[in-house]
Fold:
Amino acid sequence: MQKVHVTKETAPPTKHACTHCRTLKIRCQGEPPCSNCLRRGISCSLDHHRQTAVDVQPGDYDKRASDPQSMPSRSMSTQLKANRSAMQSHYLALYFQRFHPHWPFIHKGSFSDYETPLLVQSMVVLGLWMSREKDTQSKAMDLHKVLDSAIREQTAVWDASSSEDACSACLWPIPTYQAILLHIIFAGLSQGGGVLGPDLKPSLAPPDRNLLERLVASCKKLGLLSYPNMLNRYCQDDLATYVWVSIEEVKRFNLALFRACRAFTSATKQKSIGQDIADAASRTLQVCDLQFPWPRNAPLWNAVGKAEWLSAATEEVFRHSQHDTLEEEWISNSAGVLEMIDG
Structure:
């Protein structure tokens, strides 16, 4: 006869939304890591035990790109901390106060404690530089050098430009690309203008120019510049507000990348030594490449908190359809005029 043990049935564990989903007020599956964080390529606050250090092998882009933890700095902890230090929070606040108004491509309203470490540290660099506090610019340069080594050592993780398998269906590592763009902008900012080209624009140092070209080529290879590709990353059941923020973030990143390319003469006007014409074209960004509509509703994008969000939100802004690509509104339609003005 089998002995029956009477035990109290354990209730299934309560599922909690992650920090990112709570901030955006979107549905979270409650299991680490949640699908929303995976899709955005950020660390999920539910995933406390996931390691951030990854050994990257050359040519591993398509295998590693689906892992949101695969772009750490060597100096960063292997686990993310929910509570940032007061000093780090101070310089992140300065970033949003002094740098963000000029380059508003990171969504402040949904920025959380669990963002990709590389992105956070790249923002801290600019916060340090812009603070004008004692010794902070030298500290910014030191941290910039550490991040530079990490970015270049892990090129195989993020650089899709030379991967035969990279396509628009691959994960878009937006936080990593945002961090690299900030890194490049700081390189230009900290060199104090450098040598001017014939168009009176400063030149990036060759290693930084190469980094910018690789970033541009990667974005092209992954299809980031295409509005239909942006729409195809979401389904009808996704919360409209979440889709809007995500698409706007890609559009604003693309425009910031285009602006950075135009700011430096060598990045877009000159062909690197050893590049053929086709390769050089893939590493430059022109107005005709911007196949998406202009960003919408700046007050909503800049809203922080529920009150600001509700006051700026309009019903039509959240309407997205895979069947309506708004091709007549694409920036690329104005390529002839804009290229003529920019020269």
